Amino acid sequence: MKKHFAPCLSAMLALFPFAVSAQEARPELDKDLARCALLADPTERLGCYDLVANRPADAPPALAANGTDQQQGAFPGGPLAKTVEPAAPAAVEPIVSVQVPLWELDGDSKRGVFNFRPHRDNYLLLANYSNSTNEAPFEEVTPSGIDSKHVELAYQLSFKLKLMETIAGSPVDLWFGYTQQSFWQAYNRDESSPFRETNYQPEIMAIAPIGKRLGGFDLRYAGLGFVHQSNGQAATLSRSWNRLYAEVGGEYGKLGVTARIWKRLDNSKSDNDNLDITDFMGHGDLRLVYRDGGSEYSLLARRNLHTDHGSLQLGWAFPLRANLKGYVQFFSGYGQSLIDYNYSQMSLGAGFLVGF
Which of 17, 27, 119, 204 sits at 20 to 30 Å (Cα–Cα) from 265? Predict the structure, then answer.
């Protein structure tokens, strides 16, 4: 009986480290899942879960091998290996691309046509304070103008949807986008709370994935687009222009970069109401977005090097709950709206930004 019992007991003791390792792996998995749940940004959170789900299985601890201590067992059956558990690697927050799912640049992110996606930022500024107001355009319509208040409510709605996918077998997708920006004198009861300005911006975009890495920079996509922007007004209040633009986008870790250059198409019309708009709005823009743990820091810059006119817009969004974020926006320069394209002002607003 003893002759059979001793080898069995030795085998059970030899398998003991495997059982311990399996029990310890579960707490580490729970910690990783809990860490993912704390990410406020939905895209980063999903990427974190994917990273945890697809990680390679933990290798079993090595038994008596080079560098391990040997310990003579008290039971027949030979020496038992004394294993040394490796230190758990430090948790690294995953870097998840935002531009890939936003433009459906790979097979895993494809959703087909006519599905709504966010385009530009969607926000509501409950209070947007400007240091000065542009009354001149309205005085041409009515001598008293509209007596604008320095504090108003501003919001932007923006979406896009795919019209055609992988056109003619190519990797190019065709998108339609729409952005509406409004400045509402909601607190100006003396003037019946009018909408001071609303800008409408439909556009068509052909986007092709690039998927190349230059140093540490991931070049994600390139595109061509046509965009019309107007304020829907008539006579002296009318503002509009049409542009053809080229765009590239990429990411460097948590930093997203988008750059555009454009060519105005209607600047030779004699009846145009804003012939000099490119003198103030420039010939392109640069967008930077840095995302960190649910917070988002953004910059939008325009500049005309010949006239030295341009604008700078800074944004800070911080998580509140689910897809809702607090949002602070600062603007300085020309062209916060089309009616103000040739009017310089500074404004500071606070409210909410909706993420998807």
Answer: 119
